[in-house]
Design goal:
Mean pLDDT: 94
Largest sheet: 7 strands, mixed
Order of helices and strands: HEHEHEHEHEHEHHEEEHHHH
Shape: elongated
Strand content: 15-25%
Radius of gyration: 22 Å
Number of helices: 12
Length: 295
């Protein structure tokens, strides 16, 4: 283990920022972590060890990257901000197992990066302190690409983490919960106060762990149709399934046809989206897919 002073302290972070005259870009949602204990816990939760590879998104000045480099066999980090590349070259210079790619993760071919940088079949963990404004697009891209990673462990806004891990009949449960849990088992593993960031964000954070599923928990006839139907049932949260589905299928299915389809699968039209389990959503979407085809 390298004995250099951890990057993730208020003093060291200030030193680095002053040395390079770095100013935070609000548009990139930059909030750097200044508590090494929290970073060590994230690495521990991710299950990173010398046999595994780690992929990081948004390394900043290298606080989390450093902890990953100390534990993982190899680390590849995607950093969108060109200004941080020379800083990372210096802060991570003690570690020869780290590569930084100056690219937006949303535009990167992550499968290709994995193929180039890691051994075939190597255990891979994805770890990040994600910018709040773009958390969902990043995670959905990674999940839909079905990357060969064991888990994704991310620090995100607490409210979003709660929504992604939510169960039916709770305030946080919605179409995002279904989308994330279709691909993964989602769990909030740690809450994090705003005081451990520089600059301090306005909201608290949480560490969310997503363990990727080999196969989805339900069988759906058409994934796009499934997700759009789920989204429609939450279109207006206080409205019933009947109301939301009527609006969604307007011009395609009559109200009687919607009522009949729901009756056939034993789901009450007066229920709300938040009361349906993933299994019920799959049955509902498959039934409406067939109904639409038959019309």
């Amino acid at each position: 283990m390298n004995n250099q002073k951890a990057i993730a302290t208020p003093t060291r972070t200030k030193e680095i920022l002053e040395q390079y005259g770095f100013s935070f870009k609000k548009s990139l949602g930059q909030n750097f972590l200044i508590d090494a204990n929290i970073l060590e816990n994230i690495v521990r939760y991710a299950g990173v060890d010398e046999r595994s590879g780690a992929i990081e998104i948004g390394p900043g000045i290298g606080a989390l990257t450093e902890q990953l480099a100390r534990h993982a066999g190899r680390v590849v980090a995607f950093e969108i901000d060109q200004r941080l590349v020379p800083i990372l070259e210096e802060t991570l210079s003690p570690y020869d197992n780290v590569s930084v790619i100056n690219k937006d993760i949303l535009e990167a071919d992550v499968h290709e990066v994995i193929k180039t940088n890691f051994e075939p079949g190597q255990s891979l963990k994805m770890v990040a302190n994600l910018p709040y404004y773009i958390t969902t697009p990043i995670l959905m891209k990674l999940l839909m690409e079905r990357l060969p990673v064991d888990n994704i462990t991310v620090m995100i806004q607490k409210e979003v983490a709660d929504r992604m891990a939510a169960s039916p009949n709770t305030k946080s449960y919605g179409s995002l919960s279904i989308a994330v849990q279709y691909y993964t088992e989602a769990k909030v593993v740690m809450n994090v106060p705003k005081t451990v960031f520089m600059p301090q964000p306005n909201v608290d954070s949480a560490v969310l762990q997503l363990v990727l599923r080999d196969v989805p928990p339900v069988q759906v006839t058409d994934e796009d149709f499934f997700f759009s139907t789920v989204q429609a049932t939450f279109g207006q949260r206080r409205k019933t399934l009947m109301n939301n589905l009527s609006r969604h299928f307007k011009g395609e299915l009559e109200k009687d046809q919607i009522r009949e389809t729901l009756a056939n699968i034993g789901i009450e039209p007066s229920r709300r989206g938040e009361s349906l389990t993933m299994e019920e959503f799959a049955v509902l979407a498959n039934a409406f897919y067939e109904k639409q085809k038959a019309v």
